[in-house]
Design a protein that fits this description.
Elements: E1 2-9, E2 20-23, E3 29-35, H1 41-53, H2 55-60, E4 75-83, E5 102-109, E6 124-127, H3 133-137, E7 149-152, H4 177-180, H5 187-208, H6 217-229, E8 237-243, E9 246-251, E10 257-259, H7 265-285, E11 290-292, E12 298-300, E13 304-308, H8 317-330, E14 334-340, H9 343-346, E15 354-357, E16 367-368, H10 371-379, H11 382-386, H12 399-417, H13 422-434, H14 439-453
Helix pairs in contact: 5-6, 5-7, 12-13, 12-14
């Protein structure tokens, strides 16, 4: 399953001229939603998740949708159009006709004030009228066959409350839990890996005792470890094994091993994310289809959609540059839709897949960036991306450096006009040596000097 179009109307800040109508590449790859704080990146990601999950997932989430509809609007709607993979996405009912593009969507309505309890209005939710029955028998089925989708919020913890994001009387919508609840964790993925370890030991014991039993856990655990070991962790660290105590890591060239849980947030969150994606894919399909990456590593080949909010959270810039390429290489048939404040995450975006969300004060809709801006971000430096209209950063320098650079321009004008005193010349030389600049910055500084000369 892949998303080809997303529409939001009267959902939080997405109303009127800011309503969403995005056409996305209906294929695997790396789609980035970029924008300032409060531009609605998380809201857009959550809305996509709810449309893909359907009414049962929405009801199961213990999330507060009180402010979901735009202020003074009576209804809010989200619609997502998806295309299916005939080999992977099937229907629970044989009579359903497969369509080229399936519409999935939900609508929230404010109840009349007379029916609200003590002034608290609980929104009424229902599928859009245009949603075909295929949705109920496909991605919205109680136990979907394929139609893989998972979502992750910025707090991707290995410890915490498992299943905290669902109510007790419904099945836990685990694939989307952390996208809506900060206290939900990915600890279940580690428990799954530990369970594989125990089952592997049981299979080995049965084999030693001469019992004929198909080995399932051992090969599956080997695939998981091969994936985690294939350059996922930076700085020459590597996941070595999985035991009853969890994941163990070592540094290249050293024999000592230590638990992953003792490492920094960056290591833990990335390992937990990848491990959970693998667990969710295996849980949805019942097996892992694997193949080699271009470098000879292990890739998981099943299709689907993975949503990640603030994918750059806890990651050093060197890791931010690599994470998009790593995930695409090891999940080559997954459509990743991520949000980020990092220019390095944006540099991995596919063509027609870098989307700018205007700020809350801008009366514009989210849109795919122009080809010129895309090339500047993807093929330029990190500074080029940060200084572009995608991020709106006015300068890459500190406020102290900016003051000194303005002084440098003033002194440079005097030096070239031969009106600088001896002290000013000395100050100019000191600042020129102190304030080393890139070619792009020097061009801007010279332009500022020329502007003053007019």
């Amino acid at each position: 399953m892949y998303i080809t179009r997303v529409q939001l109307e009267n959902i939080k800040g997405f109303s009127r001229r800011r309503a969403v109508d995005l056409k996305l590449p209906g294929r695997s790859g790396w789609i980035v939603l970029a924008g300032r704080n409060s531009s609605g990146k998380s809201t857009l990601l959550q809305a996509i998740a709810l449309a893909l999950g359907g009414p049962n997932v929405v009801r199961g989430l213990n999330a507060d949708f009180a402010g979901w509809i735009t202020h003074r609007s009576l209804t809010g709607r989200v619609a997502v159009r998806v295309t299916s993979d005939p080999r992977a996405d099937t229907f629970v009912h044989r009579g359903v006709r497969r369509e080229a593009g399936m519409l999935l969507g939900l609508e929230w309505t404010r109840p009349p004030r007379s029916t609200s309890s003590r002034g608290v209005q609980r929104l009424e939710m229902a599928p859009l009228e245009d949603v075909p029955d295929a949705g109920a028998y496909g991605p919205w089925a109680e136990n979907p066959r394929g139609w893989f989708c998972a979502g992750y919020g910025p707090f991707r913890r290995l410890t915490g409350v498992v299943g905290a994001a669902h109510s007790r009387d419904t099945a836990p919508p685990e694939p989307l839990a952390t996208l809506f609840q900060e206290n939900a964790s990915l600890a279940e993925s580690v428990r799954w890996a530990v369970d594989l370890h125990h089952r592997k030991l049981e299979e080995e014991q049965a084999r030693r005792e001469g019992e004929e039993r198909e080995e399932v856990a051992g090969p599956l655990l080997g695939t998981v470890l091969a994936l985690l070991r294939d350059g996922l962790l930076p700085d020459a660290y590597r996941v070595q094994r999985i035991t009853a105590d969890g994941l163990w890591v070592s540094e290249q060239g050293r024999k000592a091993q230590f638990p992953l849980r003792e490492m920094s947030d960056g290591y833990r969150t990335v390992a937990a994310l990848v491990l959970d994606i693998v667990r969710q894919i295996h849980g949805r399909y019942g097996y892992l289809e694997t193949g080699p990456t271009s470098s000879g590593g292990t890739a998981v080949l099943q299709p689907g959609v993975v949503l990640i909010d603030e994918v750059d959270a806890h990651l050093h810039v060197t890791w931010q540059r690599r994470i998009g390429d790593w995930l695409r290489a090891h999940f080559p048939r997954v459509q990743f839709i991520v949000t980020s404040h990092s220019p390095y995450i944006c540099q991995a975006a596919d063509e027609d897949a870098l989307i700018r969300l205007p700020g809350p004060a801008e009366a514009e809709s989210p849109a795919v960036v122009s080809e010129d801006l895309y090339r500047r971000v993807v093929y330029g430096s990190g500074d080029d991306a940060a200084l572009s209209e995608l991020f709106g950063l006015e300068t890459p320098f500190s406020s102290r450096a900016e003051r000194q650079r303005r002084r440098l321009v003033e002194l440079e004008r005097k030096v070239y006009a031969r009106t600088a005193s001896a002290e000013e010349k000395d100050e100019y030389r000191e600042l020129a040596q102190l304030l080393t600049s890139s070619v792009q910055t020097r061009v801007a500084e010279v332009a500022a000097r020329l502007e003053q000369d007019r």
